[in-house]
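request received
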Amino acid sequence: MTAQALEQRELASVIGLEVHVQLETATKIFCGCSTAAAEDEEPNTRTCPVCLGLPGALPVLNEGAVEAAVKIGKALNADIPEETTFHRKNYYYPDLPKNFQITQYDAPICQDGQLEVDIRDERRIINVRRAHLEEDPGSLQHKGGSIDTADYTLVNYNRAGTPLMEIVTEPDFRSPKEVRNFLAKLEEVLEYLGVFDSTRDGSLRVDANISMVPADDVADDGSISKETLDAANRTEVKNISSHKGAEKALAYEVTRQKNAIQRGRVIEQETRHWDESRGITVSMRSKEEEKDYRYFLEADLPPLQVSDWKQQIPIPELPDARRERFREEYGLDEESASKLTSTKEVADFYEDVAESFDPDLAATWVADNLLGELNYRDMEITDVSDRLDEFKHLVELVATDDITTKNAEEIVLRQMLDDGVDPDTVIEQEGLGKADDDEIVDFVEEAIEENPDAVEDYHSGESGALNFLVGQVMQKSRGSADPGTANQLLRERLDD
Amino acid sequence: MSDLNAFITEETIDGESDGPLSGKSVAVKDNISTKGLRTTCGSAMLEDYVPPYDATVVERLKDAGGSIAGKANMDEFGMGTTTETSAYGPTKNPVDESRVPGGSSGGSAAAVAAGEADLALGSDTGGSIRCPAAFCGVVGIKPTYGLVSRYGLVAYANSLEQIGPIAPTVEEAAELLDVVAGPDAHDGTTRDEGADSDYAGAADGDVDGLTIGVPTELVDGADEGVVDAFWDAISELEAQGATYEEVSLPSVDHAVQAYYVIAMSEASSNLARFDGVRYGKSGGYEGNWNESFASAREEGFGAEVKRRVLLGTYALSAGYHDKYYAKAQDARAWIKQDFDEAFADVDVLASPTMPVPPFELGESLDDPLQMYLADANTVPVNLANLPAISVPAGETEGLPVGLQLIGPKFGEEQIIRAASAVEQ
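response:
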């Protein structure tokens, strides 16, 4: 396929990903240093001889990282081999303490997996070629300029040795939007597994390979022949750090490549850097040659037998399965079921409340009221993790008629979130305890005495009169009366 | 001390007051990390490198009451058979100061032979304990891969090497091995073996009924005087009740080639971290950081290290990997299999440790190939991950000859028992 011919044709984009995720383990992958960055920590303090790559230090595999990898493999329905091995990837870079990276090569811990993703109304399967464990390098700070122009560069090894899982997909994506949905779904699954924290800085890093092929070379089922793929020059876009960023970077790159091809230019096979602040991809200055990493077996880490691990390590119910179960078990509609399974913590909380009270009431309270008010305040459920008991108590007060729904929603829940107080305190301060029947009887008497015109209207059959009187009773009770009870007591008194 | 140049850094560090090594001084090869005491690996690159931690073996020998006599001279990063590639000058053989002490643990063996230390720790990647032990007329043990922790041993070829003892007698070498052997949480390749060892107790000289295999490939072609001394030692063992039979290990003809491809390949990766950023002379170079790394390595490494790093990089490169590195691994598997088959019939294997007596100083420096070929009898043992001991077995023209006894995996007791009989 030459550029001349291509420029006349409609183009389709083909995208494959290499996704690096930091695994949530207590310690680094080959040593006992913490993976958690302390606030304002000094550079090169969260280190030891192993993650600094000091002469003579040896890696010892953190089994927690392997467990996390096995969980990911199970969630992706991937093959986990009998035995997995580690290799050295040799290249010189100042953020790499040993000038080689310990990674996996021909026996990765996961192979041939897949993830189902909803793209518009369609369910698509994205194939995962492999997923392997490796160590994160340190980080560089360029002083007085960018990587090319800096006066000098500082190296911080605090991050070095953080466990990474590199997840490599087949080139199964046909649009930037699909990539974004996949990454969001992947994050959701990883968080369900408890192996990933999306709020951690740099926890997700994406490299994307993207090329353009003639649209009519794409089969109806989305497949593309190897010849077509091989004929297309692709670029690799690096430095993507979020699913939103991935969509933007790739949308830019699609436009750039299409424009170039339509002008009759050949896409150069190169690595490009996503500059988030400028919203563009830029060519890395030096054209990268075909790299030779001289992989060979890391003898310091004996081969690891993992076939038993797959059986022994359980994984929790995943979002898709849980969503289905919520619809069946609790009779929820699609939208509520989706909202309530969006994170494991929300789903766990919902089930806790639904089992104690009424599933419908629980759904309204968790999906609509709680998540709605949190969202309004730009908060996540994780921001109130330690207060879930208080929210459950609020639902209980509504369920047992100790407080009206209206007061619970409009006053108690909002003050709980705004002022950080518990529901009983709000109810006491605001005098919101539901009025008992004797109190309501008194308010009924007062309302009848003070509004003889309305009483007359009621008797003459005017339908609005009763609602007016109910309103009066509610006002007198400052909302603490149950409207139904007020209605009933008023009618009993008036019809006497 | 004398002018043997056995030590790169002479400094005494006391151990615990009590223990099996109480009162013993130990020369520690300068590629074994000592906290607060510079560890140069015989290289200018690490002239100022002071480790912030002790190697596991150093901790163990201090806990056992041993004191450190200093850091022993060695071929740069262990790459040599003579201790002449050290950036700190060659060590002389105390038996004949015009000769090399062998290498790469030449400082360790010379210190013990000259009485400058009671004991020594060396490391053995392809013979680096056994060769200098043989050349200096002392005992050296290369343990089974995984018996002794390598944590703190600056790697040359990490799939091949082990730390081991050098001592005047088999029993003393075994005592030091008892102290350093056994599993270590810092080294994932160590095994449970050696946890409660009594290797010293095995040095009882009882070889009655022992079957010794002599691989003809490791005797043919050796220096005549060395061969004579070797057979005298075998006859002596026969006299004590052992029997011998000739065995064949056809794969060992490929051992030297396979060894050097694997060792150099691993070295090219292990030594990559020495780039001038944290070690060696840094800064002031022209160009980008790749050019700066190259300048720092050009300046910090000696000729033999550069030769091995370049050849190892070549052997691992795309297009050559299958031709060299992969083939060497195949040969390694074959050699392991040959040894396994031999040990089905015999208890230990015996050969001359070195096919030649000690070289004269300067003799082999200009001919690396001759130096590499001198490792023919020692490298197969590393490729097969087996234990071996070199014990003095007579002389040729006034120079020491070493007898090598090779055991099956974790068969340290067998080779120690047999070697103790050679001493008697």
